[in-house]
Amino acid sequence: KEVLAAVAPADWAKLMRETKLVRSSARKLNGYTAVTAPEKQVFDDVKLIDLAASSMGVYGVRKSDGAPVRFDPVAQRWYPLPTTGLSGGLKCIAPGKGQVWAILQSDDRVVLYDGTTWKLDPAGASARKIACGADGTPYLIGMNGTIYQRGNGWQDMKADADDLAVIGRDRLWYCWQGKLYERSGGAWVERVAGQGTSSTFTMNGLAAAPDGTIWALGQVQSTSGAQNPTQVLVTFEPGAQNGTLMTSGPLGVPELAKTAPPPDKLLDVLPVGNGEFWLRTSKGQLIRVQTAPRSTPAPYDGKSDLGSASKIDVWWDDEGIRSVLLVVSGQTFRCGDTSGSGIQQHAAYAFEAGDKLLSVDYWAGPAARGSLSGLRLTMQSRVLDFGSAVGSTAIPDLTEDAAGALCGLHGSTVTTGSRTYIASLGFHVRGDQVPQLVLDHLNDNRRHYSQAVWANLDELTLSRILANYTYTPPGGKDTSVPLGAQLDPKPVAVTGNYLGFRWNFATEQEREDWVKARQQDNSALGKELTSVVGIATNGVFAEAVLGRANSAEKIDLTRFWNWKESPIPILPTDIAPVGTGARAREVDVKVTPLAPSEARFQTIQALPNPTGMDEALRTVAAANMFRDMSGMAEVSKVLSKGVELAAGNDQAAAQRATEAMKTAAEHMQKMAQIALDAVSKAVPAGQAAGSLSALGGMLNQSKNGTDSKNGTDAKAGADAG
Hints:
The protein has 721 residues and is of the alpha+beta class. Among the domains are: 22-36 and 300-433, Jacalin-like lectin domain (Vitelline Membrane Outer Layer Protein I, subunit A); 40-290, TolB, C-terminal domain (Neuraminidase, 6 Propeller), CATH 2.120.10; 669-706, no CATH class. The chain has twelve helices and 41 strands. Strands 1, 2, 27, 36 and 37 form a five-stranded antiparallel sheet that branches. Strands 3-26-25-24 form a four-stranded antiparallel sheet, with no helix packed on it.
């Protein structure tokens, strides 16, 4: 607890320290004891007109209303079946395998119950009597007294009968006019009851037991001259040709006479199995007889003082649970025995660490006149089912015992014949009530707390844990060695929820073989596969690490790159500092007078008299301007002057072109001289380059010049070729 609290947050640590997570003492949970059925049980409040049984249970038809009923062996009461789909009462019933067949009272039609609804037989059969085998095959006695078998419709068996008992397909018995017949090899063979006796038997009722034994109810008339016939039971074992008269026991002649004293008589004797029989008399009395032997219950109680259960094993057969085994801290606790006859089933479960018991459910069965037939353990991790559920008896939920781990079991056993069954069962648990909030927190963070627990275990505790495991060396067959002998119990690593130990090799050769087998090579790793996948992006940004990567651009002297030689001539104005002075201004409230009006009245002056009109008219009349209206004289003069000017311009243009070519040549010479001067200044003669960038630029330029020259030469050579 302190280990968990030490690595928990403060609030959770307080809750953990206040909670008692583990309690060393175990407590005994109340178990369940199956009800023991009496040897003879009379149901005076139940009146039936028909009685039948199968693996589905015991069924009957109630006399008062013809309703179908079923017997609950746990509650030991008769309960009605649903009547959905029934148009009236029944007169005969025959449970089979997953289905129940019956005959209606009103019109003798055959009906079928599928677990929810009653339906008419699709073949539309009518019958006086119907019976069903353990495999579900039904047979009936038709209205004409003939036996029919269910198949593709109903098939005539070519035999008349008063009663019949069905074991399975093509395995049935019938009685006709007091005689007994068996279906054997496709033919009917007569069987004799009481071979070698001086009595005459008349059979009038048949029933088949689950093991194939036939029970025949009849009367015997003694040849010595007795007046009244005596009711007897005769059994025919599987394969026997002659029957055996029951002369003693609960079903012997004396006891039958007490059960149904004349003039009362038995109408039905129904074997159910496990020594259980049902009798129905002519007066309507219903009697349950238990003939199975039952020993005095033998108590058992075993528990471990330390630890919790790591495994549980349960054995059972079709009738009940035979044995329960619990393993706790290397100790074995077992209630029951698996010896004796019968086919048994087995189931085992290994508990997880810290698994807790939430609830227990038990089911009772008829074996040994009352025993456990089913067990359910509801653990925190999962639900465990053992045996079969035949009539449920639920035990109250044990949620209040949360965090209780199984540490033992208690109960009792009974013996019937060669078999032993569990008559009662309960468990011991260890652990106290823990707040569910704390449990949820531990489970949600179990890796964190598990690592803390593993890290705080001492070597002695780890040695005890490792002692429960064995290891088979490579190449070994059945020779296993304790795992604790191969490991150093001191952990060297914790990875997730795993604990690492140092392995001790028995020999150096074993160590070398182990290392060699785990060496990696190209074949072990496989062939490397490389592929390039183009992915559309918004661009790629890369940044070089200073001092680790040379990612600068190459200097090209043909481009302008040194901005120090030509600083930006236009610079933005400096941002003036923020003024913090007051913005308040005095308001001038003096009224400004209006300006004088600009509007004035002016005196209109008189217009002068027209005095030049006469002179203009005289001038136009005297002038000679309209004689040469086309201007031929002036045009001739202009054309002559243009020809003279064009000839002079050609001479001037030629002279100016010559002067321009001369100026361009002089400019190129000056530019070349400037470049030579710049180079000589950058790299003085006899000295190393003062700037690596300048030197790199010149090398790059010289390389480009060489490449360009080589390319030009190559092209010239190609053109020449």
